[in-house]
Amino acid sequence: TCNADGDCPNSGDVCANHVCTAGSGASGGLGTACTSNADCVSGQCGSDGTNSFCVVGCDTSNDGCPNGFGCLSDGDGTNGVCWPGADNGNNDNTGGCQSKGGGGTGPAMILLGLGFAGLILVRKRA
Q: Are 29 and 50 in contact (CB under 8 A)?
């Protein structure tokens, strides 16, 4: 378990939701580009319809994502994913695992919303 990136034993690991995981410097690490779940150390490749990144799950009511990431809602209650660039104001360089409210704002949230809207439109046409 961890409370900050510095608590992780491996260089380059980040603290996400009190668990050390491979960071963006590692192949398949959090925030790296992916095309399938198999590409990611976490086993989760998330897409906003335009970009696909390796992600880990999070709770939007308790943003435990590392610095430079924010917990963006997946549209199902408080479930979300740590998404790169949506830092939710977590800029204190401690590596995250802090209690931040909200599901994030900014370009990544807009893209995520457009991706979900696109999925709904495609399903209705089919």
A: no
* Structure confidence at residue 74 (pLDDT): 79
Which pTM does this prediction carry? 0.66
Structural element, H or E, at residue 58: strand 57-59
Residue type, 101: G
Cβ-based neighbours of 95, under 8 Å, separated by 6 or more:
2, 4, 5, 6, 7, 14, 15, 66, 67
Reference 58, options 122, 123, 14; nearest CA is 14
Round the CA-based radius of gyration of the chain to a whole number and report it.
Answer: 14
Contact 63, 43 (CB under 8 A): no
